Protein backbone atom coordinates (compact mmCIF):
# COMPACT_ATOMS: atom_id res chain seq x y z
CA UNK A 1 0.00 0.00 0.00
CA UNK A 2 2.74 2.41 1.02
CA UNK A 3 4.87 1.33 -1.91
CA UNK A 4 2.05 1.76 -4.41
CA UNK A 5 1.11 5.21 -3.04
CA UNK A 6 4.75 6.24 -3.08
CA UNK A 7 5.23 5.03 -6.64
CA UNK A 8 2.02 6.64 -7.82
CA UNK A 9 2.92 10.03 -6.35
CA UNK A 10 6.39 9.97 -7.96
CA UNK A 11 4.89 9.03 -11.31
CA UNK A 12 2.38 11.89 -11.08
CA UNK A 13 5.04 14.45 -10.19
CA UNK A 14 7.42 13.32 -12.91
CA UNK A 15 4.65 13.24 -15.51
CA UNK A 16 3.49 16.75 -14.63
CA UNK A 17 7.07 17.93 -14.83
CA UNK A 18 7.43 16.25 -18.21
CA UNK A 19 4.35 18.05 -19.48
CA UNK A 20 5.88 21.29 -18.31
CA UNK A 21 9.10 20.60 -20.20
CA UNK A 22 7.17 19.59 -23.30
CA UNK A 23 4.90 22.66 -23.19
CA UNK A 24 6.77 24.04 -26.16
CA UNK A 25 5.52 21.09 -28.20
CA UNK A 26 1.97 21.38 -26.93
CA UNK A 27 0.85 23.32 -29.94
CA UNK A 28 2.34 20.74 -32.26
CA UNK A 29 0.40 18.02 -30.46
CA UNK A 30 -2.80 20.04 -30.57
CA UNK A 31 -2.28 20.80 -34.26
CA UNK A 32 -1.68 17.14 -34.99
CA UNK A 33 -4.78 15.90 -33.17
CA UNK A 34 -7.32 18.68 -33.56
CA UNK A 35 -6.27 20.94 -36.39
CA UNK A 36 -5.00 18.61 -39.10
CA UNK A 37 -7.97 18.89 -41.43
CA UNK A 38 -8.19 22.67 -41.19
CA UNK A 39 -4.43 23.04 -41.53
CA UNK A 40 -4.44 20.91 -44.67
CA UNK A 41 -7.33 22.90 -46.09
CA UNK A 42 -5.57 26.16 -45.28
CA UNK A 43 -2.41 24.97 -46.96
CA UNK A 44 -4.35 23.96 -50.09
CA UNK A 45 -6.10 27.32 -50.25
CA UNK A 46 -2.86 29.24 -49.73
CA UNK A 47 -1.10 27.29 -52.48
CA UNK A 48 -4.02 27.85 -54.84
CA UNK A 49 -4.02 31.56 -54.05
CA UNK A 50 -0.31 31.81 -54.77
CA UNK A 51 -0.81 30.13 -58.14
CA UNK A 52 -3.67 32.45 -59.06
CA UNK A 53 -1.67 35.47 -57.97
CA UNK A 54 1.28 34.32 -60.09
CA UNK A 55 -1.03 33.86 -63.06
CA UNK A 56 -2.55 37.28 -62.52
CA UNK A 57 0.88 38.90 -62.39
CA UNK A 58 1.68 37.40 -65.77
CA UNK A 59 -1.45 38.90 -67.36
CA UNK A 60 -1.68 42.52 -68.47
CA UNK A 61 -4.66 44.14 -66.76
CA UNK A 62 -5.17 46.54 -69.63
CA UNK A 63 -4.82 44.10 -72.50
CA UNK A 64 -6.72 41.22 -70.94
CA UNK A 65 -8.94 43.05 -68.50
CA UNK A 66 -11.65 40.41 -68.38
CA UNK A 67 -9.25 37.56 -67.61
CA UNK A 68 -7.40 39.69 -65.05
CA UNK A 69 -10.66 40.65 -63.34
CA UNK A 70 -11.90 37.06 -63.24
CA UNK A 71 -8.63 36.04 -61.59
CA UNK A 72 -9.04 38.95 -59.18
CA UNK A 73 -12.51 37.72 -58.26
CA UNK A 74 -11.19 34.23 -57.60
CA UNK A 75 -8.41 35.63 -55.45
CA UNK A 76 -10.87 37.75 -53.43
CA UNK A 77 -13.03 34.70 -52.89
CA UNK A 78 -10.04 32.67 -51.78
CA UNK A 79 -9.00 35.45 -49.40
CA UNK A 80 -12.42 35.24 -47.76
CA UNK A 81 -12.16 31.46 -47.49
CA UNK A 82 -8.63 31.68 -46.08
CA UNK A 83 -9.79 34.17 -43.44
CA UNK A 84 -12.64 31.85 -42.45
CA UNK A 85 -10.47 28.75 -42.29
CA UNK A 86 -7.80 30.60 -40.30
CA UNK A 87 -10.33 31.73 -37.70
CA UNK A 88 -11.72 28.18 -37.51
CA UNK A 89 -8.19 26.88 -37.06
CA UNK A 90 -7.54 29.31 -34.23
CA UNK A 91 -10.78 28.24 -32.53
CA UNK A 92 -9.92 24.55 -32.95
CA UNK A 93 -6.46 25.14 -31.53
CA UNK A 94 -7.86 26.99 -28.51
CA UNK A 95 -10.39 24.24 -28.01
CA UNK A 96 -7.63 21.62 -28.21
CA UNK A 97 -5.43 23.43 -25.72
CA UNK A 98 -8.39 23.73 -23.39
CA UNK A 99 -9.14 20.00 -23.64
CA UNK A 100 -5.50 19.11 -22.99
CA UNK A 101 -5.38 21.42 -19.96
CA UNK A 102 -8.54 19.89 -18.57
CA UNK A 103 -7.22 16.38 -19.12
CA UNK A 104 -4.00 17.27 -17.37
CA UNK A 105 -5.95 18.74 -14.50
CA UNK A 106 -8.24 15.72 -14.13
CA UNK A 107 -5.68 12.98 -14.64
CA UNK A 108 -2.64 14.38 -12.88
CA UNK A 109 -3.02 17.63 -10.94
CA UNK A 110 -6.18 16.76 -9.01
CA UNK A 111 -5.11 13.20 -8.14
CA UNK A 112 -1.75 14.50 -6.93
CA UNK A 113 -3.39 17.17 -4.79
CA UNK A 114 -5.87 14.64 -3.37
CA UNK A 115 -3.02 12.28 -2.64
CA UNK A 116 -1.07 14.98 -0.82
CA UNK A 117 -4.02 15.75 1.40
CA UNK A 118 -5.29 12.20 1.88
CA UNK A 119 -2.05 10.34 2.27
CA UNK A 120 0.15 13.28 3.16
CA UNK A 121 1.05 11.90 6.56
CA UNK A 122 1.87 8.44 5.31
CA UNK A 123 5.46 7.65 6.41
CA UNK A 124 7.57 6.65 3.43
CA UNK A 125 10.94 6.13 5.07
CA UNK A 126 12.87 6.82 8.32
CA UNK A 127 15.95 8.77 9.28
CA UNK A 128 18.02 8.64 12.48
CA UNK A 129 16.31 10.70 15.14
CA UNK A 130 19.24 12.84 16.25
CA UNK A 131 19.95 14.34 12.84
CA UNK A 132 17.35 17.13 13.04
CA UNK A 133 16.06 19.58 15.66
CA UNK A 134 12.84 18.73 17.46
CA UNK A 135 10.75 21.25 15.48
CA UNK A 136 11.93 19.90 12.18
CA UNK A 137 11.20 16.35 13.24
CA UNK A 138 7.58 17.36 13.73
CA UNK A 139 7.41 18.89 10.27
CA UNK A 140 9.08 15.94 8.63
CA UNK A 141 6.75 13.41 10.19
CA UNK A 142 3.51 15.39 9.99
CA UNK A 143 3.98 17.86 7.14
CA UNK A 144 4.00 21.66 6.96
CA UNK A 145 0.80 21.85 9.00
CA UNK A 146 2.85 20.95 12.07
CA UNK A 147 4.78 24.23 11.72
CA UNK A 148 1.53 26.20 11.49
CA UNK A 149 -0.13 24.34 14.38
CA UNK A 150 2.95 24.37 16.64
CA UNK A 151 2.35 27.81 18.22
CA UNK A 152 -1.33 26.99 18.82
CA UNK A 153 -0.41 23.75 20.57
CA UNK A 154 2.12 25.63 22.68
CA UNK A 155 -0.52 28.14 23.73
CA UNK A 156 -3.05 25.45 24.55
CA UNK A 157 -0.82 22.85 26.19
CA UNK A 158 2.21 24.83 27.25
CA UNK A 159 5.80 23.70 26.77
CA UNK A 160 5.95 19.92 26.42
CA UNK A 161 8.71 17.94 28.01
CA UNK A 162 10.13 15.87 25.25
CA UNK A 163 11.06 12.38 26.09
CA UNK A 164 12.91 10.78 23.27
CA UNK A 165 11.35 7.36 22.75
CA UNK A 166 12.19 6.91 19.11
CA UNK A 167 15.53 6.29 17.56
CA UNK A 168 14.24 7.21 14.09
CA UNK A 169 12.26 10.07 12.58
CA UNK A 170 9.82 9.24 9.81
CA UNK A 171 9.47 11.34 6.68
CA UNK A 172 5.88 11.73 5.52
CA UNK A 173 4.76 11.59 1.91
CA UNK A 174 3.95 15.31 1.69
CA UNK A 175 7.45 16.32 2.77
CA UNK A 176 9.04 13.73 0.51
CA UNK A 177 7.09 15.05 -2.52
CA UNK A 178 8.04 18.60 -1.61
CA UNK A 179 11.69 17.63 -1.37
CA UNK A 180 11.54 15.77 -4.69
CA UNK A 181 9.98 18.79 -6.42
CA UNK A 182 12.64 21.08 -4.99
CA UNK A 183 15.45 18.79 -6.17
CA UNK A 184 13.99 18.65 -9.69
CA UNK A 185 13.60 22.45 -9.75
CA UNK A 186 17.18 23.01 -8.58
CA UNK A 187 18.59 20.49 -11.06
CA UNK A 188 16.64 22.11 -13.88
CA UNK A 189 17.92 25.52 -12.87
CA UNK A 190 21.55 24.36 -12.81
CA UNK A 191 21.27 22.55 -16.17
CA UNK A 192 19.61 25.56 -17.83
CA UNK A 193 22.27 27.92 -16.58
CA UNK A 194 25.07 25.60 -17.65
CA UNK A 195 23.56 25.24 -21.12
CA UNK A 196 23.16 28.99 -21.49
CA UNK B 1 -35.09 30.51 -76.19
CA UNK B 2 -32.95 33.64 -76.44
CA UNK B 3 -31.03 34.07 -73.24
CA UNK B 4 -29.22 37.24 -74.29
CA UNK B 5 -29.70 40.05 -71.84
CA UNK B 6 -31.14 43.22 -73.35
CA UNK B 7 -28.70 46.03 -74.00
CA UNK B 8 -31.06 48.63 -72.60
CA UNK B 9 -32.88 49.59 -69.42
CA UNK B 10 -36.38 49.05 -70.81
CA UNK B 11 -37.30 46.56 -68.10
CA UNK B 12 -36.22 48.99 -65.37
CA UNK B 13 -37.87 51.99 -67.04
CA UNK B 14 -41.19 50.19 -67.30
CA UNK B 15 -40.88 48.49 -63.92
CA UNK B 16 -43.90 48.93 -61.66
CA UNK B 17 -42.28 47.46 -58.56
CA UNK B 18 -39.05 49.37 -58.16
CA UNK B 19 -39.18 51.97 -55.42
CA UNK B 20 -35.51 52.83 -55.00
CA UNK B 21 -33.03 53.25 -57.78
CA UNK B 22 -29.44 54.22 -57.10
CA UNK B 23 -27.19 55.58 -59.78
CA UNK B 24 -23.53 55.58 -58.91
CA UNK B 25 -20.00 55.62 -60.21
CA UNK B 26 -16.82 57.58 -59.99
CA UNK B 27 -16.61 61.27 -60.92
CA UNK B 28 -16.90 62.55 -64.45
CA UNK B 29 -18.47 59.45 -66.03
CA UNK B 30 -21.91 60.98 -66.63
CA UNK B 31 -23.67 59.92 -63.46
CA UNK B 32 -25.93 62.94 -63.22
CA UNK B 33 -26.82 62.78 -66.90
CA UNK B 34 -27.62 59.09 -66.50
CA UNK B 35 -29.72 59.56 -63.36
CA UNK B 36 -31.65 62.42 -65.01
CA UNK B 37 -32.12 60.28 -68.12
CA UNK B 38 -33.44 57.32 -66.13
CA UNK B 39 -35.80 59.59 -64.19
CA UNK B 40 -37.11 61.23 -67.37
CA UNK B 41 -37.66 57.95 -69.19
CA UNK B 42 -39.46 56.42 -66.23
CA UNK B 43 -41.66 59.51 -65.88
CA UNK B 44 -42.51 59.41 -69.60
CA UNK B 45 -43.16 55.66 -69.58
CA UNK B 46 -45.39 55.77 -66.49
CA UNK B 47 -47.28 59.08 -66.54
CA UNK B 48 -49.61 58.07 -63.71
CA UNK B 49 -46.81 57.69 -61.20
CA UNK B 50 -44.80 60.27 -59.31
CA UNK B 51 -41.03 60.18 -59.44
CA UNK B 52 -38.47 61.94 -57.31
CA UNK B 53 -34.90 62.48 -58.41
CA UNK B 54 -32.70 63.32 -55.48
CA UNK B 55 -29.07 64.31 -55.48
CA UNK B 56 -27.03 63.51 -52.37
CA UNK B 57 -23.80 64.77 -53.88
CA UNK B 58 -22.57 67.83 -51.96
CA UNK B 59 -21.47 69.25 -55.32
CA UNK B 60 -24.99 69.33 -56.69
CA UNK B 61 -25.50 69.09 -60.44
CA UNK B 62 -29.20 68.55 -60.93
CA UNK B 63 -29.88 72.25 -61.25
CA UNK B 64 -27.16 72.51 -63.90
CA UNK B 65 -28.42 69.42 -65.71
CA UNK B 66 -31.98 70.68 -66.03
CA UNK B 67 -31.06 74.32 -66.31
CA UNK B 68 -33.27 75.35 -63.43
CA UNK B 69 -32.77 75.79 -59.73
CA UNK B 70 -33.65 73.04 -57.27
CA UNK B 71 -33.20 73.08 -53.52
CA UNK B 72 -33.86 71.11 -50.38
CA UNK B 73 -37.57 71.11 -51.09
CA UNK B 74 -38.80 68.92 -53.89
CA UNK B 75 -39.99 70.84 -56.92
CA UNK B 76 -41.47 69.64 -60.17
CA UNK B 77 -39.31 69.85 -63.25
CA UNK B 78 -40.64 72.45 -65.68
CA UNK B 79 -42.34 70.58 -68.47
CA UNK B 80 -42.87 67.35 -66.51
CA UNK B 81 -45.96 66.76 -64.36
CA UNK B 82 -44.73 63.69 -62.58
CA UNK B 83 -41.02 64.29 -62.02
CA UNK B 84 -39.68 66.30 -59.07
CA UNK B 85 -36.10 67.07 -58.13
CA UNK B 86 -34.39 67.73 -54.84
CA UNK B 87 -30.84 68.54 -53.83
CA UNK B 88 -29.82 67.73 -50.27
CA UNK B 89 -26.45 67.62 -48.55
CA UNK B 90 -27.06 64.96 -45.89
CA UNK B 91 -23.71 65.37 -44.15
CA UNK B 92 -24.26 69.10 -43.73
CA UNK B 93 -27.77 68.49 -42.39
CA UNK B 94 -26.39 65.93 -39.98
CA UNK B 95 -23.64 68.27 -38.84
CA UNK B 96 -26.19 71.04 -38.22
CA UNK B 97 -28.32 68.76 -36.10
CA UNK B 98 -25.31 67.52 -34.20
CA UNK B 99 -24.11 71.05 -33.49
CA UNK B 100 -27.59 71.96 -32.32
CA UNK B 101 -27.75 68.94 -30.04
CA UNK B 102 -24.37 69.74 -28.53
CA UNK B 103 -25.25 73.42 -28.02
CA UNK B 104 -28.67 72.86 -26.51
CA UNK B 105 -28.08 69.44 -25.00
CA UNK B 106 -31.80 68.86 -25.39
CA UNK B 107 -33.59 65.79 -26.47
CA UNK B 108 -35.39 66.65 -29.66
CA UNK B 109 -37.37 64.14 -31.59
CA UNK B 110 -35.96 61.71 -34.06
CA UNK B 111 -32.39 62.24 -35.08
CA UNK B 112 -31.64 64.80 -32.36
CA UNK B 113 -32.77 62.29 -29.81
CA UNK B 114 -30.50 59.77 -31.40
CA UNK B 115 -27.55 62.11 -31.25
CA UNK B 116 -27.74 62.40 -27.44
CA UNK B 117 -26.08 65.73 -27.07
CA UNK B 118 -23.41 64.89 -29.57
CA UNK B 119 -22.34 61.72 -27.78
CA UNK B 120 -23.24 59.46 -30.62
CA UNK B 121 -21.34 61.73 -32.95
CA UNK B 122 -18.20 60.69 -31.10
CA UNK B 123 -18.88 57.17 -32.17
CA UNK B 124 -19.36 58.02 -35.82
CA UNK B 125 -15.68 58.26 -36.39
CA UNK B 126 -15.06 54.79 -35.03
CA UNK B 127 -17.86 52.63 -36.41
CA UNK B 128 -17.84 52.28 -40.19
CA UNK B 129 -21.19 53.02 -41.70
CA UNK B 130 -22.77 55.08 -38.93
CA UNK B 131 -22.08 58.34 -40.73
CA UNK B 132 -23.71 57.01 -43.88
CA UNK B 133 -26.60 55.50 -41.91
CA UNK B 134 -27.41 58.72 -40.11
CA UNK B 135 -27.04 60.72 -43.32
CA UNK B 136 -29.30 58.35 -45.16
CA UNK B 137 -31.94 58.38 -42.48
CA UNK B 138 -31.89 62.14 -42.60
CA UNK B 139 -32.57 61.88 -46.34
CA UNK B 140 -35.43 59.45 -45.78
CA UNK B 141 -36.98 61.73 -43.21
CA UNK B 142 -36.67 64.62 -45.61
CA UNK B 143 -38.47 62.67 -48.33
CA UNK B 144 -41.22 61.79 -45.87
CA UNK B 145 -41.58 65.45 -44.97
CA UNK B 146 -41.89 66.32 -48.65
CA UNK B 147 -44.59 63.73 -49.12
CA UNK B 148 -46.51 65.08 -46.16
CA UNK B 149 -46.03 68.65 -47.33
CA UNK B 150 -47.01 68.20 -50.96
CA UNK B 151 -49.66 65.67 -50.19
CA UNK B 152 -48.52 63.21 -52.82
CA UNK B 153 -46.41 60.12 -52.43
CA UNK B 154 -43.48 59.42 -54.64
CA UNK B 155 -43.77 56.00 -56.23
CA UNK B 156 -40.12 55.78 -57.15
CA UNK B 157 -37.08 57.62 -55.84
CA UNK B 158 -33.96 57.84 -57.95
CA UNK B 159 -30.75 58.69 -56.10
CA UNK B 160 -27.91 60.46 -57.84
CA UNK B 161 -25.19 59.41 -55.42
CA UNK B 162 -21.93 61.11 -54.57
CA UNK B 163 -18.84 59.90 -56.40
CA UNK B 164 -16.82 59.72 -53.21
CA UNK B 165 -17.41 57.62 -50.15
CA UNK B 166 -19.51 54.56 -49.57
CA UNK B 167 -23.13 55.58 -49.90
CA UNK B 168 -24.43 52.17 -49.01
CA UNK B 169 -21.73 51.07 -46.58
CA UNK B 170 -24.28 51.38 -43.81
CA UNK B 171 -25.99 48.23 -45.08
CA UNK B 172 -23.29 46.30 -43.22
CA UNK B 173 -24.08 48.22 -40.08
CA UNK B 174 -26.56 45.79 -38.49
CA UNK B 175 -23.87 43.13 -38.36
CA UNK B 176 -21.30 45.54 -36.92
CA UNK B 177 -23.78 46.90 -34.41
CA UNK B 178 -24.85 43.41 -33.34
CA UNK B 179 -21.29 42.56 -32.41
CA UNK B 180 -20.84 45.89 -30.66
CA UNK B 181 -24.11 45.58 -28.77
CA UNK B 182 -23.20 42.07 -27.62
CA UNK B 183 -20.02 43.47 -26.11
CA UNK B 184 -21.92 46.37 -24.56
CA UNK B 185 -24.46 43.93 -23.19
CA UNK B 186 -21.73 41.97 -21.42
CA UNK B 187 -20.33 45.12 -19.83
CA UNK B 188 -23.76 46.51 -18.89
CA UNK B 189 -24.75 43.18 -17.42
CA UNK B 190 -21.74 43.28 -15.13
CA UNK B 191 -21.99 46.90 -14.04
CA UNK B 192 -25.73 47.39 -14.35
CA UNK B 193 -27.21 50.77 -13.51
CA UNK B 194 -23.83 52.07 -12.37
CA UNK B 195 -23.13 53.07 -15.94
CA UNK B 196 -26.25 55.22 -16.11
CA UNK B 197 -25.57 56.89 -12.78
CA UNK B 198 -21.99 57.59 -13.86
CA UNK B 199 -23.36 59.44 -16.89
CA UNK B 200 -25.37 61.62 -14.55
CA UNK B 201 -28.41 63.84 -14.93
CA UNK B 202 -31.94 63.22 -16.01
CA UNK B 203 -30.89 62.51 -19.56
CA UNK B 204 -29.78 58.96 -19.51
CA UNK B 205 -26.95 58.22 -21.81
CA UNK B 206 -28.72 55.16 -23.04
CA UNK B 207 -26.30 54.61 -25.83
CA UNK B 208 -27.18 50.96 -26.03
CA UNK B 209 -30.86 51.73 -26.47
CA UNK B 210 -30.12 54.26 -29.18
CA UNK B 211 -27.79 51.90 -30.95
CA UNK B 212 -30.47 49.22 -30.84
CA UNK B 213 -32.89 51.70 -32.34
CA UNK B 214 -30.40 52.61 -35.05
CA UNK B 215 -29.78 48.95 -35.76
CA UNK B 216 -33.54 48.35 -36.03
CA UNK B 217 -33.98 51.26 -38.42
CA UNK B 218 -31.12 50.17 -40.61
CA UNK B 219 -32.43 46.61 -40.71
CA UNK B 220 -35.79 47.90 -41.94
CA UNK B 221 -34.06 49.87 -44.66
CA UNK B 222 -31.84 46.93 -45.49
CA UNK B 223 -34.87 44.69 -45.97
CA UNK B 224 -36.10 47.00 -48.70
CA UNK B 225 -32.72 47.60 -50.25
CA UNK B 226 -31.87 43.94 -50.56
CA UNK B 227 -35.16 43.14 -52.27
CA UNK B 228 -34.33 43.05 -56.01
CA UNK B 229 -37.92 43.88 -56.94
CA UNK B 230 -37.82 47.08 -54.91
CA UNK B 231 -34.28 48.32 -55.23
CA UNK B 232 -31.55 48.25 -57.83
CA UNK B 233 -28.24 49.93 -58.42
CA UNK B 234 -27.22 51.22 -61.83
CA UNK B 235 -23.47 51.60 -62.32
CA UNK B 236 -22.19 54.27 -64.65
CA UNK B 237 -18.75 54.15 -66.16
CA UNK B 238 -16.70 54.96 -69.21
CA UNK B 239 -14.79 52.52 -71.34
CA UNK B 240 -11.37 53.03 -69.77
CA UNK B 241 -9.32 50.86 -67.47
CA UNK B 242 -9.53 52.85 -64.23
CA UNK B 243 -13.25 53.46 -64.57
CA UNK B 244 -13.88 49.78 -65.20
CA UNK B 245 -11.70 48.80 -62.29
CA UNK B 246 -13.65 51.12 -59.99
CA UNK B 247 -16.91 49.78 -61.39
CA UNK B 248 -15.82 46.23 -60.66
CA UNK B 249 -14.95 47.18 -57.09
CA UNK B 250 -18.29 48.93 -56.70
CA UNK B 251 -20.19 45.92 -58.03
CA UNK B 252 -18.36 43.52 -55.69
CA UNK B 253 -19.05 45.83 -52.77
CA UNK B 254 -22.75 46.00 -53.66
CA UNK B 255 -22.92 42.23 -54.01
CA UNK B 256 -21.43 41.92 -50.53
CA UNK B 257 -24.31 44.08 -49.28
CA UNK B 258 -26.78 41.71 -51.05
CA UNK B 259 -27.86 44.59 -53.22
CA UNK B 260 -29.24 43.94 -56.69
CA UNK B 261 -26.99 45.29 -59.41
CA UNK B 262 -27.57 44.19 -62.97
CA UNK B 263 -27.20 47.32 -65.09
CA UNK B 264 -24.15 49.16 -66.34
CA UNK B 265 -24.25 52.31 -68.45
CA UNK B 266 -21.09 52.86 -70.47
CA UNK B 267 -20.92 56.51 -71.44
CA UNK B 268 -18.89 58.66 -73.77
CA UNK B 269 -18.45 56.06 -76.49
CA UNK B 270 -17.14 57.41 -79.76
CA UNK B 271 -18.46 54.86 -82.30
CA UNK B 272 -15.90 56.46 -84.60
CA UNK B 273 -16.19 53.92 -87.41
CA UNK B 274 -19.85 54.91 -87.95
CA UNK B 275 -19.25 58.62 -87.74
CA UNK B 276 -19.33 60.14 -91.20
CA UNK B 277 -19.19 63.72 -89.95
CA UNK B 278 -16.00 63.41 -87.99
CA UNK B 279 -13.45 60.67 -88.12
CA UNK B 280 -10.02 61.82 -87.10
CA UNK B 281 -7.06 59.65 -86.23
CA UNK B 282 -7.36 60.50 -82.58
CA UNK B 283 -11.00 59.46 -82.44
CA UNK B 284 -10.19 56.24 -84.26
CA UNK B 285 -7.42 55.45 -81.77
CA UNK B 286 -9.61 56.20 -78.80
CA UNK B 287 -12.50 54.23 -80.24
CA UNK B 288 -10.18 51.27 -80.75
CA UNK B 289 -9.18 51.46 -77.10
CA UNK B 290 -12.82 51.79 -76.04
CA UNK B 291 -13.84 48.80 -78.15
CA UNK B 292 -11.11 46.70 -76.55
CA UNK B 293 -12.60 47.38 -73.13
CA UNK B 294 -16.17 47.05 -74.40
CA UNK B 295 -15.42 43.49 -75.48
CA UNK B 296 -13.98 42.81 -72.03
CA UNK B 297 -17.10 44.30 -70.40
CA UNK B 298 -19.34 42.08 -72.52
CA UNK B 299 -17.32 39.06 -71.44
CA UNK B 300 -17.20 39.97 -67.75
CA UNK B 301 -20.78 41.11 -67.31
CA UNK B 302 -22.65 38.82 -69.68
CA UNK B 303 -25.71 38.68 -67.40
CA UNK B 304 -25.86 42.45 -66.94
CA UNK B 305 -27.78 45.03 -68.96
CA UNK B 306 -24.82 46.82 -70.51
CA UNK B 307 -26.09 50.00 -72.12
CA UNK B 308 -23.75 51.77 -74.54
CA UNK B 309 -24.27 55.50 -74.77
CA UNK B 310 -22.61 57.81 -77.27
CA UNK B 311 -20.39 60.81 -76.66
CA UNK B 312 -22.36 63.77 -77.92
CA UNK B 313 -21.25 66.91 -79.65
CA UNK B 314 -22.16 69.12 -76.72
CA UNK B 315 -23.09 68.98 -73.07
CA UNK B 316 -26.44 67.37 -72.43
CA UNK B 317 -28.26 70.06 -70.51
CA UNK B 318 -31.87 71.04 -70.39
CA UNK B 319 -34.98 68.87 -70.48
CA UNK B 320 -35.20 68.80 -74.29
CA UNK B 321 -31.66 67.49 -74.76
CA UNK B 322 -31.99 65.07 -71.88
CA UNK B 323 -35.13 63.62 -73.45
CA UNK B 324 -33.35 63.12 -76.75
CA UNK B 325 -30.35 61.54 -75.11
CA UNK B 326 -32.29 59.40 -72.62
CA UNK B 327 -34.28 57.60 -75.31
CA UNK B 328 -31.22 55.39 -75.87
CA UNK B 329 -31.60 53.97 -72.42
CA UNK B 330 -34.95 52.56 -73.43
CA UNK B 331 -34.07 51.55 -76.95
CA UNK B 332 -30.40 50.92 -77.49
CA UNK B 333 -28.34 53.34 -79.51
CA UNK B 334 -27.71 52.27 -83.08
CA UNK B 335 -24.57 54.09 -84.27
CA UNK B 336 -25.60 53.77 -87.89
CA UNK B 337 -29.18 55.04 -87.72
CA UNK B 338 -29.09 57.24 -84.63
CA UNK B 339 -25.82 58.98 -85.41
CA UNK B 340 -27.38 62.30 -86.34
CA UNK B 341 -28.87 62.75 -82.86
CA UNK B 342 -25.37 63.35 -81.50
CA UNK B 343 -25.14 66.56 -83.53
CA UNK B 344 -28.75 67.56 -82.98
CA UNK B 345 -28.31 68.11 -79.27
CA UNK B 346 -28.27 71.87 -79.08
CA UNK B 347 -26.56 73.85 -76.43
CA UNK B 348 -28.95 75.23 -73.87
CA UNK B 349 -28.83 79.02 -73.48
What report would you give on this structure?
- The complex is a heterodimer of chains A (196) and B (349).
- Chain A is mainly α.
- Chain A has helices spanning 2-21, 26-34, 36-57, 65-118, 134-142, 145-157, 173-195, and strands spanning 123-128, 168-172.
- Chain A has a domain at 2-122: Orthogonal Bundle (Helix Hairpins).
- Chain A is rod-shaped, with a radius of gyration of 30 Å.
- The model of chain A has no long low-confidence stretch (mean pLDDT 83).
- Chain B has one domain (9-90, 130-347): Rossmann fold (3-Layer(aba) Sandwich).
- The radius of gyration of chain B is 23 Å and the shape is globular.
- At the A-B interface, helix 4 of A face helix 11 and helix 12 of B.
Give me a quick take on this structure.
The complex is a heterodimer of chains A (196) and B (349). Chain A has 196 residues and is mainly alpha-helical.
Primary descriptors:
heterodimer, A: 196 residues, mainly alpha, Helix Hairpins, rod-shaped, B: 349 residues, Rossmann fold, 8-stranded mixed sheet, Golgi to ER traffic protein 1 (chain A), signal (chain A), golgi apparatus (chain A)
Number of strands of chain A: 2
Morphology of chain A: rod-shaped
CATH class of chain B: Alpha Beta
| Count of discrete structural domains of chain B | 1
- Largest sheet, spatial ordering of strands of chain B: 3-4-2-5-1-6-7-8
Distance between the termini of chain A: 43 Å
What structural category do the secondary elements of chain B indicate?
A: alpha/beta
